[in-house]
Amino acid sequence: MDHAAVLAAYDRQLRHDTQGEGGDTRVERTGGVVRVTGSAHDWNGVLWTDTDASTADAVIAEQVRHFTDAGREFEWKLHSYDRPDDLAERLLAAGFEAEPMETVMVAEAAALPAGPELPDGIRLLPVTDAAGVKLMAEAHLAAFGEDDAALSEHLARRVLAQLTETPDEIVAVVAMAGDRPVCGARMEFRPGTDFAGLWGGGTDPQWRGKGIYRAMVAHRARIAVERGYRYLQVDASDDSRPILDRLGFATLCTTTPYVYRP
C-alpha cells in the first residue's frame, strides 16, 4: 500500500469532499473549514480545515458561534497531520474537551483473510429494522456497560435513521449467542469514494478472545468487495488496533475528537 497516496485519498474523499450522511444534515465549506450540521441526534462537527497560525483562532471562534447559535454540541475531528501544529492547544484554550485518541487504519478489502470462522454457538444476524437495532444496542451495553447507556441510545437512533433513510449506505450485523446479542457492528459506505468505514465491534467480555471481532471484520470485508469498495477504514481504539494490525491493516494517522458543549 502506498501510504502517501492512500492518506491523500482519505483526506480528499472522506474529509474535504464529504457529501454528508443525508437526512437533516448539510455540509458547508466556508472560511477554510468543511463542517457538518444536522439535528441534535446527528453527528455535528468540523471534518477538515485549512488554517495556519494567523487564522486558526478566528476560525475556531467562528465554528463555536455557528454551532452554539444552532444549539448543537459539536466535535472538531483533529488529525495528526492537521495544521497549525498547536491546533490542539488552541482548541483546548477555546473550551473544547479532548476525548481518547484513535488510530486511523486502512486495509485493502480484497486482501484481508477470509477467516476465522465464528466460534461454536455464535451466529450472525443481519440488522434491518428497529428490532435488530435494539439487539445492537443491547450488545453495546453488554460490551461497555451501563455507563455507556446514553451513547448506546444515540447510536441506536442514528443507525435506525440510516437504515430507514439511506439503506444502501449501511450494513449492520449483530452476533448472537442463542437469544443473547454479544457483539454489534456496522459498515457505512460513502458513494463515489474508495472507502467503506467499519464501526462498532465491541464484544461482551465473556465472549472476547474467541474470534468474533475478526469474523465481523471478515464478514464486512466480503460485502465491501462485492459492492466495489477498495479500502476498509477504521478509527481504531487501543483495544482493536492490535487485532486490526494482525489482520493487515496499516496505520495512516491518528485522530482525536475535540468536543465543544455550549
Automatic annotation (TrEMBL):
<dbReference type="InterPro" id="IPR016181">
    <property type="entry name" value="Acyl_CoA_acyltransferase"/>
</dbReference>
<dbReference type="GO" id="GO:0016746">
    <property type="term" value="F:acyltransferase activity"/>
</dbReference>
<dbReference type="InterPro" id="IPR000182">
    <property type="entry name" value="GNAT_dom"/>
</dbReference>
<protein>
    <submittedName>
        <fullName>GNAT family N-acetyltransferase</fullName>
        <ecNumber>2.3.1.-</ecNumber>
    </submittedName>
</protein>
<keyword id="KW-0808">Transferase</keyword>
<keyword id="KW-0012">Acyltransferase</keyword>
<feature type="domain" description="N-acetyltransferase">
    <location>
        <begin position="131"/>
        <end position="262"/>
    </location>
</feature>
<dbReference type="Pfam" id="PF00583">
    <property type="entry name" value="Acetyltransf_1"/>
</dbReference>
